[in-house]
Amino acid sequence: MSWHGIDGHDAVAEQFRRALERRRLASSFLFVGPAGVGKRAFALKFAQALLCERRPEERLDPCEACPACVQVAAGTHPDLDVVGKPADKSFIPLELLIGDKEHRRREGLCARIGLKPFGGRRKIALIDDADYLNAEGANALLKTLEEPPPRSVLILIGTSPARQLPTIRSRCQLIRFQPLPAEILARLLIEQGVAGSPEEAERLAALGEGSLQRAKQLVQPELGQFRDLLYAELQQGTFNSPRLAQNVARFVEGAGKEASARRQRLHIIVRFATDFYRKRLRTEAAAQQAPDPDRTARRLDCCLETDQQIDRNANQATLIEAWLDTLAAA
How far is CA 107 from the centre of its chain? Predict the structure, then answer.
């Protein structure tokens, strides 16, 4: 079973359905979970259910055919606002949230969500890429989070609570999305034409570790090959960090001349290492016999911090060297 074509998150849908039936729906939510598991698709379908003109919202069952449902699907509904990080930016611009300097608090998402609903039901706003809210952007949201307009719903979509300021986390209801099961990933890869055979779909699903986005990325043979090379180095525990830094820098440069493409490739590589240490941490916890139980945790923290630094205009070569030196020294 899947809730309106959203695979793997029926439990989350049921959680929202119960809240609506009890008339206890919160006004602000933080959706977290691995990239590429359907958080944004779920948020849009949830918005469709709340704005549907034919079915009561407590059923959480949009008809998908009324004018409101069609508008939500097309991204044109006047009571639905969606913002995210532009591809050429490192963070979500403040202007998208509260308007430019000449129109502060009179334009932007925070102003629009405070308007009376056009359809008389709710105002809904989604902030995609919420991991890329800087301190200024997060602080701009505080007034809206502390004093939510009547009949409004604000959803922030990110990957981890740790990537949000405490002021944001404390004012949002946390909704966790789990990685997709391998069988669902494999089916989606075939349905979307990413994999040409069941065998390839199963291989990519295993490598994707619950993320459709990651599985799609690994269709590129060079990414899968570099992942194997990186894992082989990290498996040794003690590795030649200058040599590995050169290999990583060369591979990142191979993404092209665009800075955004290079940043994206470096994100992928650092997240490969993050996954490696997460797996190791789980294995060590299960075995309860790791020689230094804190070592892997320190390396995992280093990867998470480096992933955040990539979009902070840090010098990439220096960042790569510092990251791998820290891992090797840990």
Answer: 26
56: left (phi over 0), alpha (psi -120 to 50) or beta: beta
Crossing angle of helices 259-287 and 221-235, rounded to 10° = 40
* Residues paired with residue 175 on neighbouring β-strands, in sequence order: 31
Residue 126, beta-bridge partner list = 82, 155
What is the bridge-based pairing of β-strands 123-127 and 80-83? parallel
Structure-token pair, residue 124 = 């809904």
Distance of CA 328 to the CA centre of its chain: 28
Q: What global pTM score does this model have?
A: 0.83
What amino acid occupies position 8? Answer: G
CATH level 3 topology of 10-176: Rossmann fold (3.40.50)
Work out the end-to-end distance of the chain between its first and last CA atoms, rounded to an integer number of angstroms.
45
Tell which residue, 142, 128, 150, has the closest CA to residue 172.
142
CA distance 187 to 193: 10
- Return the domain boundaries, the chain: 10-176, 180-210, 220-329
What would the pLDDT profile of 171-182 be if each residue is shown by its tens digit?
A: 999 999 999 999
Q: How far apart are CA 1 and CA 299, in angstroms?
A: 38
Query: Half-sphere exposure (CA, 13 Å, Cβ side) for 270?
Result: 28
pLDDT digits (tens, 9 = 90+) for 32-90: 998 899 999 999 999 999 999 999 999 999 999 999 999 999 999 999 999 999 988 88
Q: 313-327 burial, b if ≥16 CB within 10 A, otherwise e?
A: eeebeebbbbbbebb
Q: What ranges in 239-258 are assigned the alpha helix state H?
A: 241-253
| Enclosing H/E stretch for 317 | helix 316-329
Burial letters 40-69, b for 16+ CB under 10 A, else e: bebbbbbbbbbbbeeeebbebbbebebebb
